[in-house]
């Protein structure tokens, strides 16, 4: 994660590719790999699609993977994050906002990404890697 935080996205992707090769069912490694590849300007979607075949996309964070693959939109992702358990809902919304922010940032939608990172930083509980990552991205965006 330190490499990702410092902007060494290609190095992060190389390490995460090894992690995914060892544990192909690890949703978060698959997501971080896709985010690192996107941020490094590398092709991410064919590899993500192949990795997604080994994941349970119905269970969280599967909807985030589906969003990255273009199978669902932002509204459907946020709806999938909803849960009657408010704590779980906040955790999932935190992650949804963060990963959507990464997707927007990689696509050059900086203002949209900033708003998503701000929402993630407000929702993410202490100890969530997405909280630290959202704060890093917000700090990196300071003009």
Description:
71% of the residues lie in helices and 0% in strands. It starts with a helix and ends with a helix. It contains 9 helices and no strands. α2 (9-22) packs antiparallel against α3, α5 runs antiparallel to α6 (74-81) and α7 packs parallel to α9 (129-140). It has a single domain, classed as Serine Threonine Protein Phosphatase 5, Tetratricopeptide repeat (Alpha Horseshoe). The mean pLDDT is 95. With 143 residues, the protein is an all-alpha fold.
List its traits.
143 residues, mainly alpha, Serine Threonine Protein Phosphatase 5, Tetratricopeptide repeat, 71% helix, 0% strand, globular
Give the class from helix and strand content and strand pairing.
mainly alpha
Assign the CATH topology.
Answer: Serine Threonine Protein Phosphatase 5, Tetratricopeptide repeat
**Backbone shape:** globular
What is the overall pLDDT average? 95
Number of helices: 9
